[in-house]
Amino acid sequence: MADHKDGLADRFPHVPERLSGLVDLAYNLWWSWHPEARVLFKQINQQAWKKSLHNPVKMLRDIPPEYLDGVLANPAYLRRYDIIMNRFSRYMANHSGWFSEHYPKEKSQPIAYFSAEYGLHHSLPFYAGGLGFLAGDHLKECSDLGVPLVAVGFMYSEGYLHQHIRPDGWQDNITEVLDRDAAPITRVLNAAGNQMVIQVPFIEPRMYAAAWKVNVGKIPLFLLDTDIAENLPENRTISHRLYAEQTAQRLKQEIVLGIGGRKMLAELGIGFAAVHLNEGHPAFALLEGIRERVAAGMTFPDAMEQVKRTSVFTTHTPVPAGNDIFPRDLMNTYFSSYYGQMGIDAETFFGLGHHPCDEGTGFNMTAFALRLTQYHNAVSKKHGTVARAMWHCMWPGTSEQEVPIDHITNGVHLPTWLNPRMETLYSDYFRCVDPLWHEDHDNPEIWQMIEEIPDKKLWEMHLWLKQKLFNRIRERKRIKWGSQLNEPGNLVAEGLMLNPSVLTIGFARRFSSYKRADLIFHDRTRLKRILTNPWRPVQIIFAGKAHPADNEGKEILQRIYEFAQQPEFGGRIGFVEDYGEQMAQYLVHGVDVWMNNPVPPMEACGTSGMKASLNGVLNLSILDGWWIEGYQGKNGWAFEGDPSQETRDASDSTALYNLLEKEVMPLYYSASMDGIPHGWVKMMKESIKSTSAAFSARRMVKEYVTRYYPTLVAGAQDR
Ligand SMILES: *Cc1c(COP(=O)(O)O)cnc(C)c1O
Questions:
Q1: Which GO terms of the molecular function aspect are on file (predicted)?
Q2: What sections of 43-95 are H helices per DSSP?
Q3: How far apart are CA 638 and CA 620, in angstroms?
C-alpha cells in the first residue's frame, strides 16, 4: 500500500527537513492521546494552534514558515521534538505488549471492525454520540494493547450536524463541509498513484466509493467516500451525513458500509480472521462474506456457517427505532442481482433478515446480525437482560435466561478522557508503588492509592478544571458576540451568568426524548428554590444536539433554552451550543456533578458518566445502564426509576430534588475552616477509586479479546 507521504510531501514544503516528523505525527491521532505530543504543536505557536482548533494538519498547512524557523533555532524545542518523535517511532514499531504475550499464535490475523461512526477527535466529525466514541476508544485501546485490528467506516464530509441555536431557542443545522485536505485523513492510493475507488459488487444501480485512511496509533481506519464523479448524482450524497433520514438513503449507506467496506479491504489485500460489527448498521458485511466464499466455490450453507463462526456482533440499543428495518420492495431495488450470487433465492435471502415476532415489516438488520454471528453481546449487565428479553423470539426453544446474548460493559479510553493535569496528580502518588501503572490501569488495586492524595491538592485541581470550563464557555460566547446579534436573554441562556463558585451540575447528551433532559423542570417551583437558594445555590449546564428529524427533541431543547432566560431561575441555567468532543472534555473534567435521568431501561450503558467519574466528577444518576454496576453506595448518588409510565416523571424528579436538597447541596457547601469540603473530596476519591479500572476501555478490550478472539481465529483456521 502506498504511503501517505507520497502525496503529502509536496503539500508541506515549508516544513523543514529537521522537523519533518511533525507531518507524520499530525497524520496519526496518537498525538491526541499523548499530551506531550500535543504540546509539540502548541509550542510552535499558541495562536496558530488555537486558530486551527487543535488540528495539527490544518495548523501545519496554514502556518507562516517563520514560526517553524523560529523553533528550528530553539534547542529546547528540538530536544523535546527528538524525544517525542523517538517515543512515537518506538510505539509504532513495538509489536510486543499485552496481546502478543497472551496470544502469540493469533498475532498476524487482524479482526475487521465495522462501525457507522467513530468519535476520535473533533477534527474528524464522523460521530453522532456514544456509539461513535465507544468505537473510537476501542480502536485507541487496541492500538495501545497491540491487538491487531483494521477498521472500516465512512468519510462523512458534512458530519452529523453543526448546531446553531436561534435567538428563539430553536436548533438550526449549519452545514459545514469538511476540508478534506485540512483533516488528518489521507487518500489511499492505487498502484497507478490515484486514489483507490471501489465498486460495491453486484449492487444495481452501481455504487462507488473512494478510500481514505486515518491512522489511529497502530490501527488503520479505512473510510468510504461516495462523493465522487463515478457515482450517479443521487449516490454521491450517500456518505455526506451520518444516519440519513430517508429509509432508501439509509439502506444505501448500509450497503456501501458493509458490502463496499468489505470490498475495500479485499482490494487493499488486507486479510482478516474475523469480523466485529459495532451495532447492526454494517451487518451487510456478513452477506459479502458469504458471497465471497460462494464465489470461491463453497456451498451457501457452508459459507454461512463459516461466516457465523468468525463473527461477533455488539448490540447497543434497547430503543426499537435504533434497529433498522428495510422494506422488501426497497431491498429488491438493490439486491436482486446480489442474492443469486450467493446461490440462494429471494425467500432464503429474506429469511435471513426475518424477525419471527415482527412479521412482514421487512429485513431486520439486528435479527440478521444475530442470526449470522456466533457471538453477540450487549453493552452492560442490565442491557444483557434487556436484550435477551427483547430478542427471545429468535430462540424460541430456549428460556429467556438462556438466550445466547452475553454482555461486555463499555469502558472509556483513559489517556483520552483523563485530563492531563489530573493524570499528573494521580501519577505523583501511583508511581511510588508502580512506575508502570499506566500499563496496568485496569487493575483496581492501583487506584486505591488515590487515598494518599491530600484533599487540598485534589480539590484545587478540580477547581482549576472547573475554572477552565467557565473560561471556555465565556470565550465561546464572546466569539459569538462579535459575529452575531445577541439579545441579552440569549447571553444569559448560553451561560454568561454562570458562576464558578456555585455547585455546578452538568447534563450533556443527545436530546432524544427518552433521555428526559427536561425532567428537572417537572416541578418548576421546587427547581427554582434549589437554584436560587441564597446559601447553597445550584446551577445547571446543558448541552446536546437533537437529531435533525427529531422535532420532539428540538422542542425539549427549546423549552430548556426558554427556561434559561427566565429571571425566576436567576441566571443559573446555561445551554452550551454544539456539544462535541471538545466541549465534552471540558464538561466531564470541570462540572461538580454529572446528572443522568433517562427512562430505564433505555440507556444501554452510557459512557459520559464514566469519563466524569475518572476525573473526580460525581455521578447523580437514575439506576440504569452502567451505573447499576458502578454505584456502590458511597461513590455518588443513585435513585430507582419509577416503572409506571403515568407517575414516573413526577416521582423521578422528586427523587432528584430530594437528593439535591438533602445530600448533594449540604455536602458541597460543607467546607471546614481550611475552605475544603472534605466530605465531598472523600466522595470524589471513592468515585475515582471504584470506577476507573472497571470502566476503562482497557478492561473492555481485554474482555472482547479473551472471550471471543481465540475462538474466532480458530473458526477461521478450521476451513
Ligand atoms: C462520551 C460522549 C457521548 C456518550 O455519552 P452518553 O453518556 O452515552 O450519553 C456522547 N457525546 C460525546 C461528545 C461524548 O464525548
A1: glycogen phosphorylase activity; pyridoxal phosphate binding
A2: 46-51, 56-62, 65-72, 75-93
A3: 6
CA–CA gap between residue 195 and residue 186 (Å, rounded): 10
pLDDT score at 320? 78
What is residue 119's predicted lDDT score, i.e. its pLDDT? 98
Nearest-atom index, ligand 1, CA of 611: 1
Q: What pLDDT is stored for residue 714 in this prediction? A: 80
Mutate to test the pocket of ligand 1, among 126, 414, 509 (most ligand atoms within 8 A of CB): 509
Verify whether ligand 1 is closer than 6 Å to residue 608 (CB atom).
yes
Are 708 and 690 within one domain?
no
Indicate whether 65 and 123 sit together in one domain: no
Contact 137 CB / ligand 1 (< 6 Å):
no
Domain that holds residue 47: 9-93
Length of the chain measured in residues: 719
Cα of 198 from ligand 1 centre, angstroms: 33
Q: Is 129 in the pocket of ligand 1 (CB under 6 A)?
A: yes
Which residues on neighbouring strands pair with residue 274, listed in sequence order? Answer: 111
Residue 710: predicted pLDDT: 79
154-163 core/surface letters (b: 16 or more CB in 10 A; e: else): bbbbbbbbbb
Please indicate, yes or no, whether residues 516 and 623 belong to a single structural domain of this protein: yes
276 - beta bridge partners?
Answer: 113, 312
Q: What's residue 3's pLDDT? A: 44
In angstroms, the CA 658 to CA 193 distance is 65
pLDDT in tens, 443-495: 999 999 999 999 999 999 999 999 999 999 998 888 877 766 667 788 888 88
Residue of 118, 507, 607, 695 to mutate, ligand 1, most atoms within 8 A of C-beta: 607
Instruction: Say yes or no: 342 and 462 in one domain.
Output: no
Q: Would you state the pLDDT for residue 7? A: 59
Q: How far is the CA of 144 from the centre of ligand 1 (A)?
A: 22
Instruction: Name 637's bridge partners.
Output: 620
Q: CATH number, domain at 273?
A: 3.40.50.2000
Considering only CA atoms, which residue is closest to atom 3 of ligand 1?
130
Do 684 and 711 lie in one domain? The reply is no
Please work out whether the CB of residue 133 comes within 6 Å of at least one atom of ligand 1.
Answer: yes
* 280 shares a domain with 192: yes
Q: Among the atoms of ligand 1, which is closest to the Cα of residue 508?
A: 9
Q: Are 210 and 225 in contact (CB under 8 A)?
A: yes
CA of 589 to the centre of ligand 1 (A): 13
Ligand 1, atom nearest to 417 Cα = 15
Distance, CA of 583 to CA of 323 (rounded, Å): 29
List average pLDDT for each run of 10 residues in the chain, which is 719 residues long. Answer: 53 93 97 97 95 95 94 96 98 90 82 98 95 98 96 96 92 92 95 95 95 98 98 96 92 98 97 96 98 96 96 92 90 94 94 90 95 97 96 94 97 98 98 94 97 98 98 88 74 88 97 95 98 97 94 96 94 95 97 98 96 98 98 98 96 98 97 93 98 98 93 73
SS3 state of residue 610: helix
* 315-344 CB burial, b ≥16 within 10 A, e <16: bbbbeeebbbbbebebbebbbeebbebbbb
pLDDT at 485: 63
Strand, coil or helix: 413? coil
For ligand 1, the distance from its centroid to the CA atom of residue 133, given in whole angstroms, is: 7
What is the position in ligand 1's atom list of the atom closest to the CA of 509? 9
Other C-beta atoms within 10 Å of 395: how many? 16
What is the predicted pLDDT for the residue at 2? 36
Residue 635, classified by CB atoms within 10 Å of its CB into exposed (0-12), middle (13-18) or buried (19+), is: buried
pLDDT of residue 718: 60
Structural domains in the chain (count)? 3
Q: Which atom of ligand 1 is nearest to the CA of 544?
A: 11
Is residue 110 within 6 Å of ligand 1 at its C-beta? Answer: no
